[in-house]
Amino acid sequence: MDAAFEASEVFAPSSPHFLADPYPAYATLREKGRAHFYAPTGQWLIPHHADVAALLRDRRLGRTYLHRFTHEEFGRPAPPAEHEPFHVLNDNGMLDLEAPTHTRIRRLVSKAFTPRTVEQRRPYVAELADRFARELVADGGGDLAARVAEPLPVAVIAQMLGIPESDRPLLRPWSAAICGMYELNPPEETAARAVRASLEFTAYLRELIAVRRKEPGDDLVSALIAAHDEGESLTEQEMISTCVLLLNAGHEATVNATVNGWYALFRHPAQLAALRADPTGLIPTAVEELMRHDTPLQLFERWVLDDIEVDGRLIPRGSEVALLFGSANHDPAVFTRPAGLDLTRRDNPHISFSAGIHYCIGAPLARIELAASLGALLRRAPRLRLAAEPARRPNFVIRGLEELLVEV
């Protein structure tokens, strides 16, 4: 631990240079210690894989503190009243809840999100991926993000929820606006967009739920309405928040994993050639390696509910830790040649889907979607190539590209 080191010397999430490639900065953070206070956000940065993995499972930390403390007791200000629609929507989702409420909701949602249910989606996912790939090829190329990466997960989750095809264009803008609040220190205009999207998405889902109560269908909303366990059920707000979470978390991660992954493949032509030569054999490990190599969710936050100690440093109750997934996934203590791309990597304990009680419930579906789109593009566009160097989105937490222009 280097007591004289200031994290802000290398950790600069608003810098275009840092956003282009944060991994060298992560290497410095890991070299300098296991916990670094970052004054601009008042958070403790945790860069090592072992610590990130352990703290994700440590019940002395939580996604919320309101199950144990008031804002005043925890030493934190309440959110501004004008942000309430966003927080009502966000704070009733599994991702931002702790036991016992989280336990109850996840158990009920899992009944409608079983491995068998997800596996039944595989033919539909494959069909969609093939269609989007064919259309991209027919046009000679285009923006892989807009033509394949984005429409695939939106169509899949919309079909699961029972959202009519005509309404699906609404989902991506709502998702993008709400997810803007997950960045570090979001400005007020971002909050205003998130509030509007929260109100509109909530109103839409409330109407959809009302329809499904009268006319149940073979969809996830109907299944959530019907989910019971020992007399317990989901409230309407919990159903709404669950639907939004499934769209936002699954969709954003899958879109960015797809574009980040293909950009990495274009920059590693030998690996891309190997994948083209043996897609069946390499796609399963390629999906995991691409998720690790350029992590779509770079940071995950936790509140410190009881004092913890990391590397001899006391991190007191009321603090917030920023678990650096991108850094953990490049930790040489866990991954051989972490900066390299190795599609044959078998020992790959990346934490891109988190860990512990908040492990991504949609991870199996995301893997199916990523494998399907990768396979379809390899099959339909065997000479796919980069047409222009892409620009990074000006986001840090959710890492992606503005567009990915390709030629076939």
Account of the 3D structure:
The protein is an alpha+beta fold and 408 residues long. The chain has one domain (7-407): Cytochrome p450 (Orthogonal Bundle). The protein is built from 18 helices and 12 strands. The strands form 4 sheets. A 5-stranded mixed sheet has the order 1-2-10-7-3, sandwiched between helices. β8 and β9 form a beta hairpin. The longest helix has 32 residues, at 236-267.
Labels describing this entry:
three-stranded antiparallel β-sheet, five-stranded mixed β-sheet, 408 residues, 9% strand, globular, Cytochrome p450
Task: Provide a quick synopsis of the model.
The chain is α+β, with helices and mostly antiparallel strands and 408 residues long. Helix content is 50%, strand content 9%.
Shape: globular
- Percentage of β-strand residues: 5-15%
Structure classification: alpha+beta
CATH architecture descriptor text: Orthogonal Bundle
Counting DSSP H or I runs of 4 or more residues, the number of helices is 18
Give the termini separation: 50 Å
Please render the helix and strand layout as text.
Elements (H helix, E strand, L loop, with lengths): L15 H5 L2 H10 L3 E3 L4 E4 L2 H8 L4 E2 L8 H4 L9 H8 L9 H11 L3 H5 L2 H17 L2 E3 H6 L1 H11 L9 H9 L8 H27 L5 H7 L1 E2 L2 E2 L2 H32 L1 H9 L1 H15 L5 E6 L3 E3 L2 E3 L4 E5 H4 L34 H18 L4 E2 L18 E3 L1
Parallel strand pairs: 2-10
Antiparallel strand pairs: 1-2, 3-7, 4-12, 5-6, 7-10, 8-9, 11-12
Helix pairs in contact: 5-12, 5-14, 8-10, 8-18, 10-14, 11-12, 11-14, 12-14, 14-16, 14-18, 15-16, 16-18
